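Sat 14:20. Reprocessing the chain from the morning session after the first attempt stalled halfway. Input below, unchanged.
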Amino acid sequence: MMSWRFKGITWSVLMMAGMSGALLPGQAPGVAYVPPVISGGVEGLLWPDKTGGVNGAPGALGDGAMDRPTLRVYLPKGANPTRTGVVVAPGGGYQHLSMQKEGEDVALWLNAHGVAAFVLKYRLGPTYHHPVEIGDAQRAIRMVRARAAEYGVAVDHIGIWGFSAGGHLAATVGTRYDGGDAAAADPIERMGCRPDFLVLAYPVITLEAPLAHEGSRKYLLGDDAPAVLVTELSAETRVTKDTPPTFLYATTDDKTVPVLNSVMFYTALVKNGVSTEMHLFQHGPHGTGLAATFPDLKGWPDLLATWMKARGMM
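Finished this time. Tokens:
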């Protein structure tokens, strides 16, 4: 049995779902919806050792917080009728993580829609470089799949939702995956790490000039990365017909990550016959999260909810 360390249980405040025009589970027409109280914030190491608690992450350079990749579990108190789980990868240019706006806030939104959420704290540059980050994300998918029955999710209803550099991580996992190692002693490593769907919010996609986010490339690959590695880690070059179905959201005004990152991934998906949907808004800065404070953008999570419902994932 996997040993997990508890950093406390966080009980959510009651939230109004006024940001959503669609009725949520349990909401009567014309009545404001208040989601159930949600318990969450149970954090576990991605690689505890056999006694639990000691950092066993491959390539770890220490045993501090920055060296210990974790998964924080948020399960809806009510039913999860579609048995869907989503790994959430916050952004931050591969040098820090937006754990609230692009982490817990997203997990609570998913919980309010009856979906399990798992917020990933992955290792970062400049201490860690590729392939450590993708290894952390792949491990998160494997862990959710290995413990699917415990979490109340289906092994074929596990997606990953990434923001900005976390979007690059999600797109990388969606284009570089394996079926697991059937001979592994660790049962988690026997699981495949292919996500069943991708959600990419204002993602970094390419690491090649002139459209790359230079900070993400630097902190992921280090200085003077070989050109072949830059190309290999540009997700648009890795799309195949087997890439998971994908939802993309971005804004044309984004001055941090050019919107053409999303467009080029969408184009690659279409060329390969992958089911995809993209929503580009004209105005809006980078890093909007769920955009609750942006009147022109706050409807984008509703569009995602509609897409997930159509696919039987919400």
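The helical segments are 100-112, 132-146, 148-151, 165-175, 214-221, 227-232, 260-271, 300-310.
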